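Translate structure to sequence.
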């Protein structure tokens, strides 16, 4: 348990808890990080005092009763913190085991359950929803040419239902009978299925019903047995009355200078869209599961969900927006494009960084998790204030962490064929001498694809490359190959006066041959 230091904050006694668990032993992996693991983790650990200050200042500015957060990297909770009070009347301080209702962060749990059933052969994502919920046939779509609503549409907010925040938040404890009555009466649509993104809590309530229909279990029981228990999320619940006394963060609304307690809703049919209750200590295990899906590799699978299906959740399915004027917190301009996968939001920024995650908001609560698959890092944060905005601070923290530490995406290991081609290129560069080239450009030993010398003649390559190598002076060393993927990579040539970048990509044939080569001076 992390130590908590008590501080006076306004009229409240506020606790701050920060932990740095011991670094685990390095595990064998398909992809090694750019930096040695200890250095990579130590860089992030060293930045945590600054990160803690960002959260502390943000919590004070937004007047959160409490805030809990955790940083996960390479499958470990490497740092965490908690501020304030989970229960202001009883002055119960928040800690890493405090349980918060995480609202729409719950949607990825429901989506994961659907993919479990899909992988087990019990449904297909393109099955029409009315195959499992026959009453949906009563709904009249907008046009006669509208396709049927599918499970995939529901998972990616493409079913054509209208955006239903904040209406959906108040339906949380509706019963199965309430949902049946709604469907039987008929629902309205804002789009035909499959043509637009529109956020739908109703859609995820229907997905929860599909999980129950196919599994024969209540969603609460199914997720406990198939997701939470295997991951060791032993304290995660759907129903707040099952949370032990003193462990639940009560939800509050700010009115003037007072925090007013929000009534808690019981777990009901809409729980699948936003009812989960969990802690930083538990949820970091779920975040680690998602991070473990990257990069693709050989090896044992997690029994909860195979890596390819996890990655499927993380990929963009339904385009949601382009934001050319987007600015990071701190006002750094950087255009972003956004989309929705399966129960998860997706964003790529102007620097090529990909973020995956989801925010949550309910009366009394706000939450957010966000991770960068290629970097192997992620954050999760919970607060007990109505619709607390944690997406802004989490994005600022991740951006600051990367910029302050200099960590990079985890490198893909170079394949044997890439390494072999690098060695062969070194033999002919920069002069392309006949005696070196002859064995590497003909017969079984050929390393160049048929387009290579047709695209740029040998004489031209000789002239350009000799000039480039002359500019950097005598060669001191050829650097290690940095792979972009299994058939593309680059390496640095260091000379006495400068450096060159040598980039090459291989063809899809067997064996793969060099189809493109670019040599540029590194400024």
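Result:
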């Amino acid at each position: 348990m992390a130590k908590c230091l008590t501080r006076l904050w306004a009229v409240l006694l506020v606790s701050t808890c920060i932990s740095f668990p011991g670094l685990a032993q390095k595990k064998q992996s398909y992809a090694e990080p750019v930096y040695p693991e200890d250095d990579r983790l130590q860089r992030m650990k060293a930045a945590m005092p600054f990160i803690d200050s960002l959260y502390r200042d943000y919590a004070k500015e937004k007047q959160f009763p409490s805030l809990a957060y955790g940083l996960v990297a390479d499958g470990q909770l490497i740092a965490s913190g908690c501020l304030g009070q989970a229960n202001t009347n009883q002055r119960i301080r928040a800690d890493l085991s405090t349980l918060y209702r995480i609202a729409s962060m719950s949607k990825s749990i429901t989506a994961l359950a659907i993919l479990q059933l899909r992988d087990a052969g019990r449904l297909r994502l393109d099955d029409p929803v009315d195959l499992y919920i026959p009453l949906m046939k009563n709904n009249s779509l907008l046009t006669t040419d509208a396709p049927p609503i599918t499970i995939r549409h529901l998972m990616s907010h493409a079913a054509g239902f209208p955006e239903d925040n904040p209406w959906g938040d108040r339906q949380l404890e509706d019963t199965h009978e309430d949902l049946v009555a709604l469907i039987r009466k008929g629902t309205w649509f804002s789009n035909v299925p499959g043509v637009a993104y529109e956020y739908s809590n109703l859609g995820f309530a229907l997905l929860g019903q599909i999980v129950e229909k196919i599994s024969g279990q209540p969603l609460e029981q199914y997720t406990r047995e198939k997701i939470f228990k295997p991951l060791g999320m032993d304290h995660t619940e759907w129903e707040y009355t099952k949370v032990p006394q003193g462990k639940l963060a009560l939800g509050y609304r700010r009115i003037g200078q007072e925090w007013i307690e929000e009534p808690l809703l019981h777990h009901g049919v809409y729980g699948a869209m936003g009812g989960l209750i969990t802690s930083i200590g538990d949820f970091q295990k779920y975040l680690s599961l998602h991070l473990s899906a990257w990069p693709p590799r050989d090896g044992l699978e997690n029994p909860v969900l195979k890596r390819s299906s996890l990655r499927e959740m993380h990929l963009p399915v339904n385009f949601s927006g382009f934001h050319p004027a987007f600015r990071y917190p701190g006002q750094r301009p950087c255009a972003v494009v956004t989309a929705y996968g399966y129960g998860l939001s997706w964003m790529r920024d102007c620097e090529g960084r990909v973020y995956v995650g989801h925010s949550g908001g309910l009366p009394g609560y706000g939450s957010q998790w966000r991770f960068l698959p290629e970097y192997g890092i992620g954050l999760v944060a919970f607060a007990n204030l109505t619709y607390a905005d944690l997406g802004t601070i989490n994005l600022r923290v991740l951006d600051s962490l990367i910029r302050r530490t200099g960590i990079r995406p985890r490198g893909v290991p170079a394949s044997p064929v890439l390494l072999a081609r690098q060695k062969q290129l070194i033999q002919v560069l920069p002069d392309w001498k006949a005696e070196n080239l002859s064995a590497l450009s003909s017969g079984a030993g050929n390393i160049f694809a048929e387009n290579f010398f047709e695209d740029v003649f040998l004489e031209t390559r000789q002239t350009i490359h000799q000039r480039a190598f002359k500019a950097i002076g005598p060669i001191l060393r050829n650097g290690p190959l940095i792979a972009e993927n299994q058939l593309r990579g680059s390496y640095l040539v260091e000379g006495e006066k400068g450096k060159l970048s040598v980039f090459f990509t291989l063809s899809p044939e067997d064996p793969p041959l060099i189809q493109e080569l670019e040599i540029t001076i590194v400024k």
